[in-house]
Amino acid sequence: MNTVSRVKNLRTFPGNRILWHAVIVGVVWLLLLLLNNNIDPLYSSYLALVAMYATAMFGMTILVGLSGQVSLGNGALMAVGGYVFALTSMNWQTVPIFGWPWNAVWSMVFAGLGGILIGGVVGGLAARLKGPYLAGLTLGLAVGVPAITNRFPELLGGENGLMLTVPYPEGGYAAASGFDSTDSAGDPALDPSLDPNAVVEEDQYAELDLSEFDQGTDAELAPGDMLTEEDLLTEEDLLTEEDLLTEEDLISDGGSGTDGVDSGVDLGADSGADLGTDLDSGLIDGFDSGFIIERWQASMAIAVACLVAFAALNLIRGRQGRVWKAVRDDPIAAAVVGISPSGSKVSAFVVSSLFAALAGAVFAQILSFIGPGAFGLGLSLSLLVGIVLGGRASLLGAILGALIIVWLPELVDGLAGERGWPEQVTNNAPNLLYGLLVVAVVLAAPGGITGTIRGWVDKARDKARSPLS
Amino acid sequence: MTNFIDYLLGGFSSGAVIALMALALVLVWRSTRMVNFAQVGQAMFTTYIALTVLQSTGNWLLALVAAFGAGLVLGVLVFFLVIRPVKNSDTTGAIIATFGVLISLQAAAGMIWGGDPEGFIPPVSNAGLEFAGRIWPVSWYDILVWSVTAVLVVGLTLLFTRTSLGLSMRASAFNPEVARLSGVRVNRMLITGWAIAGATGAVGGVLIAPVSTISPNSFDILLVFAFTAAVIGGLDSLIGAVTFGIGTGLVISLVSGYTDASNAPVVALVLLALNLLVKPDGVFSHHGARSV
């Protein structure tokens, strides 16, 4: 068997395809975590926003790009996810589920379920509609759902919204409980306060971390005064840990990012001197530099985005993706070969609602707040803008769209600062650009960035293959 | 009972404006078979132009005429720059393009006039009239709104039923190919449709401005109401748009009166969803079943 056919087999056999997708997403996840840990926390907060938008836009890729339904309701569905997350994490924190303590992951699950439920209802309506009718109905959703919050001011906080205390990982704020960190498993946000590096890099955490470190390392390190201990740490710690990272870490950890996170917390508990056991913490080195909320938010948003991307990849490149495309391109022909057009439309709606709701839950955590203002028509429109500019029918297009949505206003802000534009120009310039770009893209390059580049590549390949050229 | 009558009377003005916006949507639908989601954006923009004219001259009628003219021009511009190039590609693209126009217009208005809501001084009193010993929720301004709407609706009806231009427009809406074969300049009819729609929306914007305030986003909700009315009316029926535009205004007024104004969009959404489930082609629709 030669290489080509082996690669072909890898691509066609579903199990291998899923494995392949897992590897791709895993590698991207690791790279993003590394990036997150090595950039300024300010950029981490942008990274969190990009990941959040990308999560929602993966749903738009499926709904608009693959299934061909223009929806403006995904901002409203994000609101559903955000409010479910906020309400469950605020009110149910003391309720154990199946014996497990409540945490953010449970709230995310409920947010997702809420999205599926509402998405199913809207999708059921949407399956009967097409084109402008659907766009109009979902437009009503985008305007109407935020208005519902005013109906239940006690529950939903009305116009002012709800402030929520985001369930940070154990030890995030209160360092005292830092050692009992087993229940942060699966959550890439870890126990930063345990690591001695924090002492070196972050002055404000120095005292807390040292006192904690004392508990774990009394035996090995002479419990002298603070200063000497700090010196010890700088010498030993950075050297050993960095060496280990290069040698063993990448090998042992393979493709899964979460494992590294789990064992990373062993460091403090095991022993301070024997840093050699902590192979994995090197991977997530940046997390150890004290608890930086932006980094935690970004790592959480990245985790959700990667899981959603994995699901979306498998759906789009599998049978369901072909079903969606078939119904989009010719519903009658699809019905003839035994595909239910309405079933396909509903499923696209439900999947995109699930993604939107998860993105909404992430958004609520990033903002630590949820209110109708954040989920208005503007949010829905920006999702549509992003997906159209990036490329309607590809996940990469969704990621590019998310980047544009987050980056363009910053670019304009910077320009405005240089040129001294008045505020009302600066505030509206990004939207004007979005609007004009959307029209231009629809007219000149309907495939968006990815679609256009793919078109060029295909053309070049055809030219190369053609014997006549 | 007096409450009920008050709410009902109060709803006629907003109903008239919703009817005008719905009419604009229907006119566009009849000419190009698409929904112009930028319609209220155009109306918002022309209302700002009217506001500028009003502030500099103090003449309300001049402002109305300015808005009307700007509406005609903007309708033609949007058609030429955006709709005609995109029309034959894909319906998804056309819908997205109108949203692109909406976003651009709102941003441009924000740049020029700022984002803060501005008042629009009505030409006649906006206070309730006193009659038969009590104050009614009807002002001279409401009566002006009704009259302008009535004039416009009657004018449009005459245009479509009594003039050769109207006949050509109906022909090209009914069947473009046959109309073209019979010598109708179909493209011109499409432009005319967009221009008239723009002007109708512009008048609606000027009429609603003193009641609500005007800001780049203040007409968004009007789009939902107008779309609801137009769809329930059948999207290609002028009578349907007017009837259900006023009807939507009344329902919203009742809902706002008895419960709370924030319920209005939800009620519009429910109405729209019910209609789309029960009679998706609308009540006054002419055309047959849609495929799939």
Q: In which range does the helix fraction of chain A lie?
A: over 70%
- The CATH architecture term of chain B is Orthogonal Bundle
Task: Give the CA-CA distance, first to last residue of chain B.
Answer: 46 Å
Strand content of chain A: under 5%
* Helical residue percent band of chain B: over 70%
**C-alpha geometry of chain B:** globular
Lateral strand order in the biggest sheet of chain A: 1-2
Return the domain count of chain B.
Answer: 1
Mean pLDDT of chain B: 86
Blueprint (SSEs and pairs):
The complex is a heterodimer of chains A (469) and B (292).
Chain A: H1 3-12, H2 14-38, H3 41-66, H4 74-91, H5 104-126, H6 131-151, H7 153-156, E1 162-163, H8 197-201, H9 206-217, H10 226-253, H11 257-264, H12 266-270, H13 293-317, H14 319-329, H15 331-336, H16 341-367, E2 369-370, H17 377-390, H18 395-419, H19 423-444, H20 448-465
Antiparallel strand pairs in A: 1-2
Helix pairs in contact in A: 1-2, 2-13, 3-13, 3-16, 3-17, 3-18, 4-5, 4-6, 4-16, 5-16, 13-16, 14-16, 17-18, 17-19, 17-20, 18-19
Chain B: H1 2-32, H2 39-57, H3 60-86, H4 91-113, E1 128-131, E2 134-139, H5 140-162, H6 164-174, H7 176-181, H8 186-208, H9 220-233, H10 238-258, H11 264-278
Antiparallel strand pairs in B: 1-2
Helix pairs in contact in B: 1-5, 1-8, 1-9, 1-10, 2-3, 2-4, 2-8, 3-4, 3-8, 5-6, 6-8, 9-10, 9-11, 10-11
